[in-house]
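HUMAN: I'm a chemist; might I ask for a sequence paired with its structure tokens?

ASSISTANT:
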Amino acid sequence: MKNIKETLDYINLKTNNFKPEFAIILGSGLGCFCDDLNGTVLKYENIPNFSQTNVIGHKGELLFAMVENKPCVIMQGRFHYYEGNPIQKVVFPIKVFKKLKVKTLFITNAAGATHKNLNIGDIMLIKDHINFIANPLIGKNNPEEGERFPDMSDCYSKKYQTIIKECAKNLNINLKEGVYLATTGPSYETQAEVKAFKLLGADVIGMSSAPEAIMAKYLGINTIGLSLVTNYATGVSDSKPNHKEVIEIGKKSGQKMSLLIKETIKNIGS
């Protein structure tokens, strides 16, 4: 609690006690969401107890700004488990968001499809996930934060899934739906792993997001998950996945995801 208080004191001082209702975590190459926003920028390196991000496509800044006339905090880059961060460091920003009174969290990521029913550049609404990264709730439970054994049946808010699907329809965006599988990375999956993950029900594979979603559910934050399909997983096509390709597809298709998130924010609570 001491670490969170130190972080909150710094944020409140620098933002003049800005109180965001929404939080958005931007995945690889999706920084275009912030291109037309003005607000207070805090670099991760200056925020007490925040980790650093050293992955290309992750800017490493918190932006506090109004989006569709609603107060938001945007993570321009996340902390990955594969960077050597303990799992509690990975989800630390979610705990900070809860203390800032955030009610709704958008988690976005770049992911590789396990089949060709998904196309490169598609946006997939995460209906559920399979987590092969460490669970952030391991350890002593704080009953002031949440229950020891939280129910994960509505980890991604079904109510808000209905809203975002309606927004996608109004914007003529062909929003797909599916299951996200999270691995530790940072190596891409083998062909055998991709075949196994597909048998388990995974539509896309990534290296993040599930721990943040688990923590958000535990803390009582409504969560919407979105994957941008930036590549095909190993063996699904003749091309081999690489991070440069992920960034490029993110830049090309990120505007569409940004538009969808902003439209959803406008319609939540209206």
